[in-house]
Design brief:
With about 200 residues, the protein is mostly helical. About 70% of the residues lie in helices and about 0% in strands. The protein is built from 10 helices and no strands. α2 packs antiparallel against α3 and α7 crosses α9. About 25% of the residues are buried.
Length: about 200
């Protein structure tokens, strides 16, 4: 997922065309809205934040060569812009890992996972929905937005170790809900891989 966005950005940087910018914009727009909305507590304000970031990119399109990883750049820019808006509105005491109400996309059976019962996906979706907010935001950024552990740490301004710990908590809580025995290391690795690649 991340590589596709990076590819779209590189193509836009090379040609600087409006058509390629629109393609790049369309790729990231909805994910960034879902990221910003819980921070600013408004869908409209989230759209404004994301549009501002893309407007600045368009206006500075001739100096984009300094941006190497566009995904990380966009998420950090959206985070910072959202926090600046909150500061201006005097609503700043915001802990991204505690105060966010993150909406995750549900797991849906894919062609590759037809063998898994529909009921299991319902239980899985419920388990993911009940994760603590810290786990949920990290889980969302990795699973839905395709960021790496290092990128999530940069975006949230936390250590990679914290990211790893929150993933472990998420896997443990989901395993409890699904009644999967994690005392076997293979089960833990398989569940983590399954959850983060669906």
């Amino acid at each position: 997922m991340r590589n596709k966005g990076q590819y779209k950005f590189i193509r836009f940087k090379e040609e600087l065309s409006q058509e390629l910018f629109t393609d790049f914009f369309d790729y990231y727009y909805s994910g960034l809205i879902r990221f910003a909305a819980p921070i600013v507590k408004s869908e409209v304000l989230a759209e404004e934040v994301v549009l501002d970031i893309f407007l600045k990119l368009w206006e500075n399109r001739k100096t984009l060569e300094r941006i190497e990883n566009i995904g990380t750049y966009l998420y950090i820019s959206v985070r910072n812009r959202s926090i600046n808006i909150l500061k201006k509105e005097k609503r700043f005491h915001f802990d991204m890992l505690k105060d966010s109400n993150i909406q995750l996309a549900g797991y849906k059976p894919s062609a590759e996972s037809k063998l898994i019962e529909q009921e299991m996906f319902k239980v899985l979706n419920d388990a993911v929905a009940n994760l603590p907010s810290k786990c949920k935001i990290i889980f969302k950024l990795i699973r839905e937005d395709g960021l790496t552990r290092n990128e999530v740490a940069q975006v949230l301004n936390i250590s990679v170790k914290t990211v790893d710990n929150q993933i472990a908590i998420a896997v443990k809580k989901i395993a409890e809900q699904l009644q999967i025995d994690l005392s076997n290391p293979g089960n833990s690795i398989s569940l983590k891989t399954f959850l983060l690649t669906l």
